[in-house]
Recover the amino acids of this structure.
């Protein structure tokens, strides 16, 4: 059994409750969680994608990775977003000039040369992204086999390094970077915001998934839908959740991620909500979502 860390409320200069706390956070007494997850029979390759921005892709990627790490899993997070927010949240340097995803995709470097151990959770490694990755879309255009660069590098890495999970954090687009991640992965997790226009863009994403599956990666499956930014005080959130569950009954997790001040605060401290304040509503929700995802392991 793995012991989760105690909440780090001391980061607020000695105050035990955040000055930004609101009704969105259902605060509880400090708690510690013990868990262990079912180890998959083979590495699970999960891409977190949605071309709509602001739906919780990066937040989901880093909290899922951290929770799995604390659950005894060996996890690699590949940051495919030039903004590098996942690298920031996991406390990994991604200043311009730091080598990482760009060099793997563009220069053909080995992943193992540039992975960094994150202090955010045991068993968690990160391939960082820098702003250099923003130019990759254009630079890849004339490269042969441009859509398989990441998949080939990952295959070589997994041949020499054992991992239980590989998680890809993608940019809010369906360009060549996201395409590389879709071809390298076996599963897709789509975060959907519980707000108006929630399903906007999902149709196009599903069309892209079908094209990739038909022509480039037959193993790719939509395995998980995660409802994010849920506000139980509004009828709109309930209606959106019901609509999503009607469209994706088997893929949608029963856990929903609430709107949470703690989730929003955590990245500014280079942390996930799992280590920043795992007793908050957001922290507990991500632990529950992770357990659901892990229990789906083959």
């Amino acid at each position: 059994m793995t012991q989760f860390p105690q909440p780090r409320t001391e980061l607020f200069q000695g105050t035990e409750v955040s000055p930004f706390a609101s009704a969105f956070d259902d605060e509880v007494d400090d708690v510690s969680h013990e868990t262990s997850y079912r180890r998959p029979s083979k590495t699970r390759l999960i891409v977190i994608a949605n071309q709509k921005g602001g739906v919780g892709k990066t937040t989901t990627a880093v909290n899922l990775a951290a929770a799995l790490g604390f659950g005894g899993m060996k996890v690699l997070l590949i940051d495919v977003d030039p903004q590098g927010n996942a690298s920031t949240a996991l406390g990994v340097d991604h200043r311009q000039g730091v080598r990482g995803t760009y060099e793997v995709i563009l220069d053909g470097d080995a992943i193992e040369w540039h992975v960094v151990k994150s202090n955010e959770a045991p068993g968690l490694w990160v391939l960082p992204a820098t702003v250099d990755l923003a130019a990759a879309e254009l630079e890849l255009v004339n490269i042969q086999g441009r859509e398989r660069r990441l998949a080939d590098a990952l295959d070589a890495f997994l041949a020499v390094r054992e991992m239980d999970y590989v998680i890809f954090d993608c940019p809010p687009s369906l360009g060549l970077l996201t395409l590389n991640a879709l071809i390298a992965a076996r599963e897709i997790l789509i975060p959907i915001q519980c707000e108006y226009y929630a399903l906007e863009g999902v149709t196009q994403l599903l069309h892209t998934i079908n094209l990739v599956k038909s022509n480039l990666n037959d193993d790719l499956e939509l395995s998980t839908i995660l409802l994010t930014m849920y506000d139980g005080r509004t009828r709109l959130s309930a209606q959106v959740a019901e609509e999503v569950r009607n469209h994706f009954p088997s893929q949608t997790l029963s856990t929903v991620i609430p709107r949470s001040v703690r989730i929003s605060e955590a990245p500014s401290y280079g942390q996930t909500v799992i280590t920043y304040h795992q007793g908050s509503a957001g922290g507990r929700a991500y632990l529950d979502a992770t357990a659901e995802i892990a229990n789906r392991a083959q």
Remarks:
- Strands lie at 2-3, 34-35, 44-48, 75-79, 116-117, 124-127, 165-169, 187-193, 221-230, 252-258.
- The CA atoms of residues 51 and 172 lie 4 Å apart.
- DSSP finds twelve helices and ten strands in the chain.
